[in-house]
Design goal:
With 284 residues, this protein is mainly beta. It has helices at residues 80-87, 102-105, and strands spanning 10-14, 30-34, 48-53, 60-65, 68-74, 149-150, 155-156, 162-164, 167-170, 178-183, 188-195, 201-210, 218-224, 233-237, 242-256, 259-267, 275-283. Strands 6, 8, 11, 13, 14 and 16 form a 6-stranded mixed β-sheet that branches. Strands 7, 9, 10, 12, 15 and 17 form a 6-stranded antiparallel β-sheet that branches. It has a 3-stranded antiparallel β-sheet with strand order 3-4-5, with no helix packed on it.
């Protein structure tokens, strides 16, 4: 995933095979692009995500900007050997600020008189997650049997074991399925048997949306084993632009190991609904 020449554009590309030409049409690769919304790509923080999904009938590599799936590459777009060579190995996450090269050449070139060396890249967080699968084949994010959940997989909000005050509805978020909505002060969701393992979890993030009115906001809180226990972490959310305008919001949590029942609780100073939730996950 790349940004070049100060443009308000994010490019996502899969490179593979031989160059020039080959199964991925090098040097261009199999790519697509989109623009940053709200603030420009350079003007504020944005979330960039790549998923390799092996649970679908055709494996997919999906690229996201701020939760929006704007490019997908499927294994049948290249031959089987090329796909395996591109995916079946270890991986590195590389964050790089580069100058010059063939990619910027396509948009005016450089370095030139306007090039300023020595600038830094400011990164808020990097997170790597994996899921063992075993859920509903129709919903790759479903963690499967209640009471046997992977804390580091994607836990669908609608897969709760118990709840108060919420409803399910179809979501327009990437991946489809359902979200839970009508969440207001005092509402809660329970998810039994979430396994955090022995390496402490220190982060929590949730996919949320809000069409709450002016001045209406609240907290999404994480509690363990009982709703009366103190929250181990939380984040505040207000209007995100609409009840189906989704954002992934991270938060720090107290170190957690072992297996626990997870409760999401919702606290607000106003009685009005303030948030919808599509899914959540934990990280180290």
């Amino acid at each position: 995933m790349e940004n070049t020449q100060g443009m308000n554009t994010v490019f996502a590309t899969m490179h593979c095979g031989t160059s020039p030409g080959g199964p991925c049409n090098e040097t261009s690769g199999i790519g697509s692009s989109t623009t940053c919304q709200g603030t420009t790509c350079q003007g504020g923080f944005h979330t960039y995500r790549m998923e390799w999904d092996r649970s679908t009938s055709l494996e997919e590599i999906r690229f996201y900007l701020d939760g929006n799936n704007f490019h997908t590459v499927r294994e049948n777009q290249v031959d089987a050997t090329t796909w395996n060579n591109a995916t079946d190995h270890g991986f590195f996450v590389i964050l790089n600020v580069a100058m010059g090269g063939g990619f910027p050449d396509a948009f005016g070139g450089g370095p030139d008189a306007g090039t300023q060396p020595g600038h830094s890249m400011l990164v808020d967080y990097v997170q790597v997650l994996t899921s063992g699968g075993g859920g509903d084949p129709g919903d790759p994010g479903d963690p499967g049997t209640p009471g046997n959940r992977d804390a580091y997989g994607t836990i669908q909000a609608e897969s709760y074991d118990a709840q108060s005050g919420v409803m399910k509805e179809a979501t327009s978020d990437s991946g489809g399925g359902q979200n839970v909505g009508a969440l207001a002060n005092g509402d809660w969701l329970q998810f039994k048997g979430v396994n955090f393992g022995s390496n402490p979890a220190r982060q929590f993030s949730a996919r949320v949306a809000s069409g709450a009115g002016a001045g209406v906001s609240g907290l999404v809180e994480v509690r363990l084993d009982s709703r009366s226990n103190a929250p181990i972490g939380s984040f505040a959310v207000g209007n995100t632009g609409g009840w189906q305008s989704w954002r992934t919001i991270p938060a720090n949590i107290s170190n957690v190991t072992g297996t626990h029942d997870v409760h999401l609780t919702f606290t607000s100073g106003q009685p009005a609904d303030f948030v919808n939730v599509n899914w959540f996950t934990f990280g180290h």
